[in-house]
Specification:
Layout (H helix, E strand, L loop, with lengths): L1 H16 L5 E4 L5 E4 L4 E11 L2 E10 L9 E3 L4 E10 L8 H36 L10 H50 L4 E9 L3 E11 L2 E12 L4 E12 L10 E3 L16
Parallel strand pairs: 1-4, 2-11
Antiparallel strand pairs: 2-3, 3-8, 4-7, 5-8, 6-7, 9-10
Helix pairs in contact: 2-3
Length: 278
């Protein structure tokens, strides 16, 4: 009995030691890119406050073209890397503000269409009611009363037809807007599917501290090619050679306005899988 109790206490201590105290989301922004001839190295940096003990750090919006080799993470002194794991981000749509905003706008359009349909239904019922009651009461109806009655029904019908036409046009406009929005949502979703990967990092710190992280990883579907332009000048018998670079990025992440470095080395010569010994 005493042995079982000691064993149970030991298990509880081990389980408690593996509990991650907090979870931190690092900025999804790319800091810089180094493009090699066969792939590219992405650098992301972050500054987060972590507590004493274990804490989990998450890098989101990672390209699905990430390679298993070439993963490096540098942290402050006094902080150790306990584990690094690459996973599929199941919440990539829920956590994307742009996608959620598009869904909200789509629902607003659908709500406007439902309101519009209700108005159309009421107007059409009014038209049916009016058409089924187009008669004048009594047998001694004068021509003047007949003309007035005809004019009344004509005005009512024309008014209803205009309102029905206006609501129908409005509905068609809403349907066009919804179609455009649905297409946009599909495009956003397809783009996000290219970056629905995350990197989870478990850190161990001796004390609560502000941790500076620098994450580097390799992605495929990215490279650069040299491009030469040679022009001869007959007047002074010279040749001008322009050396340019063509960069291909099919990773799903936008590199616009990001610092890009071109490297002629093979990425495997400089980057190795990190040793995560504690």
């Amino acid at each position: 009995m005493v042995l079982r109790l000691i064993l149970l206490i030991h298990i509880l201590i081990v389980l408690n030691s593996n509990i991650v105290k907090s979870q931190n989301i690092v900025s999804n922004e790319i800091s810089s890119i180094t493009v090699f001839l066969n792939n590219a190295e992405i650098t992301r940096v972050g500054n987060i406050n972590i507590p004493k003990g274990k804490s989990e750090v998450i890098f989101r919006n990672i390209s699905t073209k990430i390679l298993n080799n070439g993963l490096k993470l540098s942290v402050n002194s006094g902080v150790k890397v306990y584990a690094i794991k690459i996973e599929t981000d199941d919440d990539y749509l829920l956590t994307n503000e742009d996608y959620q905003l598009q869904l909200e706008e789509s629902e607003k359009i659908n709500e406007q269409i439902r309101i519009n349909d209700s108005r159309l239904e009421v107007l059409k019922k009014e038209m049916l009611f009016l058409e089924s009651n187009m008669k004048l009461a009594g047998n001694n109806v004068t021509f003047t009363q007949l003309d007035q009655g005809i004019q009344y029904f004509r005005d009512k019908i024309e008014d209803l037809q205009k309102r029905i036409s206006s609501e129908s046009d409005n509905r068609n406009d809403l349907l066009k807007e919804l179609k455009k929005k649905t297409k946009n949502i599909k495009e956003v979703k397809e783009k996000l599917q290219q970056t629905n990967t995350l990197i989870k990092v478990v850190l161990i710190s001796n004390s609560a501290t502000k941790c500076n992280l620098k994450l580097k990883y390799l992605v495929s579907n990215a490279l650069w090619k040299p491009n030469y332009s040679i022009r001869a000048n007959e007047q002074n018998n010279t040749i001008d050679i322009e050396y340019q670079a063509q960069i291909n990025n099919d990773t799903g992440n936008d590199w616009k306005d990001k610092p890009i470095t071109l490297a002629i080395l093979d990425s495997s010569d400089d980057i190795n899988i990190p040793d995560l010994k504690i």
